[in-house]
Amino acid sequence: MTCLPGSFADRSLGAPLPSAVLFCCTMNAVRSPMAEGILKRLHGTRIYVQSVGVRAGVEIDGFAIAVMEEIGVDLRRHITRTFEDLEDGSFDEVISLSPEAQHKAVEMTRWMACEVTFWNTFDPSLVEGSRETRLEAYRTVRDSLMTRLLQRFPVSLGPAG
Asked: φ and ψ at 53, to 5 degrees?
């Protein structure tokens, strides 16, 4: 597959599904685990999905766990990983969700033939306020990711009729 570093355009709806997708963000504690969980929920084992962060040393975010449970995705067992922790070095597409992760993803194109896409995604952990205010920020990110993932990786319901 051809590498397109920094590509901002999503593939057309008619494009075939990739066999392996990597999501990346800064810490692998909120955005990339959400995207990973949603894509696994949408496509099961049809697509190998993994997520990583640029930096290590954090656990999955509790608010991310809570809002993903609302849509039936369990992130409680998610183990945060970095690029250096990747066991499988072969992905068809890398989708970065933060500027820092985009730089790291583009570096990967030096040794991996993959498509790199940048979906700049707000970090909801930056929101302060009440529990409900914070949860609403996480829901907004979750729902935005769901919309983009359904556009990029549509779920086929089979032939009409």
From this structure: -125, 165
